[in-house]
Amino acid sequence: MSTTSVLFDLPGPRARRRQRIGTVVGVLVVIGLIALALWRLGINGQLEAQRWAILFDPASGVPQALGEALVNTLAVAAVAMVAATVLGALLAVGRLSEHAWVRGPVAVVIEFFRAVPLLVLILFCLLFLPTVGVPMTAFRALALGLTLYNMAVLAEIFRAGILSVDRGQSEAAMALGMRKSQVMTLVLLPQAVRRMLPVLVAQLVVLLKDSSLGFIVGYIELLRQARSLVEFFNFQFGNTYTFQLYVGAAVIYIVVNVLLSQLARIVEARTRRSAKTAATAEAELPADVQMGGGGGAVPV
Amino acid sequence: MQFLSDNFDLMWRAFLTTLSLAVTSGICALVLGTVLVGMRVSPVTPLRGLATFYVEVFRNTPLTVVFFFLFFGVVYIDVQFPSRFVTAVTALSLYTAAFVAEALRSGINSVPPGQAEAARALGLDFGQTLRSIVLPQAFRTVVPPLGNVWIALAKNTSIAAGFAVTDLTAALQRLANANADKLLAVFAAIVAAYLLITLPSAWLIRVVENRVAIVR
Questions:
Q1: Which residues of chain B does A128 touch, with a Cβ-Cβ cutoff of 8 Å?
Q2: Which domains does chain A have, with CATH numbers?
Q3: pTM over 0.80, yes/no
Q4: Of A113, B18, B47, B116, which residue is 20 to 30 A from B162 by alpha carbon distance?
Q5: Do B176 and A247 touch (CB under 8 A)?
Q6: Could you tell me where the DSSP H helices lie in A96-241?
Q7: Which fold has domain B2-212?
Q8: Is the pLDDT reported for residue A192 higher than 90?
């Protein structure tokens, strides 16, 4: 029995009739709203087929440009994800170190990068680092900013994962005579990563969402590309294709993210089934981390 | 310090803009999120479907895209916002409501089923059960996650800067252009201003959490 159905009785005949009427009315209202929106669009001439055709017509250069922008988006997300995973694992190990002089600074680093709004972090990379002699491009600033924030988040995720591995595992490894580093790399980390895999993929969705901040710092990702395409076409045709291009870019973003979310769900289902990894209760990202843009962590 | 006092006025106004963005959207998101979660657990299937659809769409849409759409897209269905501030508040509220609903749903799931069963046994209907039994308890357990959503919202207001709302991040960009030699001070001041919102919030959340926690 699902947890929600405890909230209400199975509806009887009268309630069912009321619900059916309500459903019909609700559906009519929703259809009405959609029709209203479509009608306004139609009046403004936004639904004409030739306006939408530009999204699929290779001769206009639009599909290529959007495809390139999608590759750019995925590229920055991939670079940041790989770097953040590696650095996050290192930080997690550092945070669990037995030496206070390792543990302390690592904790400060993690807390700092989680506390700053992600956009401010990216702007810092973009504006400040060049003044101290680090060559910067929009791509590097975006990738670096995303890496710094996500490594801190992933470090916390990995730490929780490592701590969730049964204590007997490390005790047994120690009893076999392994060094501390061996216990970590051979016994604890593999189990923790496998256990945290669903959360890792979910974090990838968040990272991909955050890569849209590139729009603000001038990285040619999907939105920025749509904007420059619009400016380009406005020059020739006026406002003709603006709406179509924006919708195209937004839809690509949403489709890619939904696909990734589905992947996360599949990975989670597999992890839960597999006998090697006892399912963890905390297999989901907290709501504030899912919001992206720096999440809700503050140093305390 | 000279630099701080010179630009205090600009920063103070930017700070107030950020704060009012966060507070207004926070309240709207809380209301909308509560309605959404009520729909999501309701006995009426279409309402459940609608709320689930809403949450899924917004969870998978970058906030920048929501902003983008409200700023550049909705004029084509003849919707006009009175000001850029209102547009930004709308974008932030619509986006955050999905996450408020998610946080609240986990809270509702954590209320022991016996509570709702007892309420139904007493003859309360769905609305009464939710309003007077389940939601009050759910709200108490979700104070920490809801608080974190609020802090994340406060940080997310920075995206409004990309759409010509003069908040803290916009002030940052302006000051950084004007004071290229004092970049570190500019960044430190802006980060401090954000912390001025988030740190007291975190403290307040902890206090409220301790005050309302249910011992089970």
A1: 183-184, 187
A2: 76-288 (1.10.3720.10)
A3: yes
A4: A113
A5: no
A6: 100-115, 118-127, 138-164, 167-175, 180-182, 189-210, 214-217, 222-237
A7: MetI-like fold (1.10.3720)
A8: no
